[in-house]
Design goal:
Number of helices: 3
Largest sheet: 5 strands, antiparallel
Structural class: alpha+beta
Radius of gyration: 15 Å
Helix content: 25-40%
Strand order of the largest sheet: 1-2-3-5-4
Number of strands: 5
Length: 158
Amino acid sequence: MLEPLRQGLPPLDPAAVSNAASCALPARYEAVREARLFTRRTLDQWDVGDRFDDICLVVSELVTNALRHALPGDAGCGGEQTPSVRLHLMRWTERLVCAVRDPSHDTPVARNSDDFSAESGRGLFLVDSFSDSWGWHPLAGTLNGKVVWALFRLQPAE
């Protein structure tokens, strides 16, 4: 189920993007709330219909994973460093992509746990369950790190 690791986005024409928004997030756990608020404000303007809650949940999970697992050990999640995590939202007519960029080169790893009462460790399982597809890819050129993304299919406007 969680096999789409290390794959690029499905072919999407960048010229056909109808809306895009992004925000830099500081290396602290309050950034998850900031990302959720940014996503809600953005999606309110974009009218994404019944996918609204799914997208907000997945954004929370992707940002939490970036803050918890992808920041250097000395950055921690309490400092006021330069933003090292960035959230991107891109909308096409019938698709929306949430992408979270972080400075780590480590592969996102889904934990295999049967403990459904655990309070952590299910982030990528939730991303897989609530999005239509997801994956990650390393950044190239002068950018360091990776992007973890989730794709949502949207109902066409009537």
